[in-house]
Write a structure and sequence with these properties.
308 residues; UDP-N-acetylmuramoyl-L-alanine:D-glutamate ligase; 4-stranded mixed beta sheet; 9 helices; 29% helix
Amino acid sequence: MTITVLGHICIDCIHENDKVVAENYGGIFFSLASLANLLGEDDRIYPVFGIGKSDYDAFIDRLKKYPNVDPSGIYKFNGPTNRIKLVYTEKEHFVEKSEHISEPILWKKIRPYLETEMVLINMISGHDLTLETLDEIRMEVRENHIPIYLDVHSLTLGSNPDFTRYLRPIEEWRRWFFMLHCVKMNEEEAGIITKEHAAEEMLAKHVLALNTQSMIVTRGKKGCTTYIDNHKAVRTVNTPGIEIENPVDATGCGDVFAGAYCANYLRTGDIESSVEFANRAAAVKAGIFSSVEIDKLSVLRLNGVVKK
């Protein structure tokens, strides 16, 4: 199995009570590490993104732990890697401040890695890809019917002058969501995407009418809802939440969900079982602080058969 992973790397600086309590790899690293832990050693994962020169060697060294990750698409750029300040007010709620957002990943960097079986795009910063680059990807993979999974994530975020992020509608959302395998968002993002603040069910109808196969809305500990195209009708599947005995940190749960969904879909080609598996993986992440022990996800590793 092969998968190409696109999105910005960042370093999460977690603050509690005005103190820095951790600095760890974040952003696309959560999705990448999830795939590495859930897929087998014979599978191949192709990440494509840039990282600041001063952080490059240490990051590549970290990836050596994963024999199924090919780091050849990771490139250096001048300037700092984006450090995201996450100020927690509660375990599941934080204020995000992003000061050094990277330049979008260029089409010429991505194109060599599109002979693949799936493409995972996670809009970590909201500036990871331009709409024109997404159009190029769609055109390149269309003939081979390669599924594209798009995590909306920070595409709904604008930036204030002090670098704090705020929710706002997505311009040209119809173009962003056109002709994909899956569009995934959380319920807060779903409520802001259109200027009209369309109800979730109506948004799903519009998205699936764009020749996109499914739309997933995650709800944290309440589970998620999947809207699936069923011969021009919408089939709705509700996946219940999983009770976590000791929730630790919600950072990265959506990114882990994305990686786990794609890992399972590569194995099964089934949307519903992939959502269920992703929901379980995200619940495991909720019990892990930041990305420190992300490799605990290996307990869910897929060996050709989905674990029950």
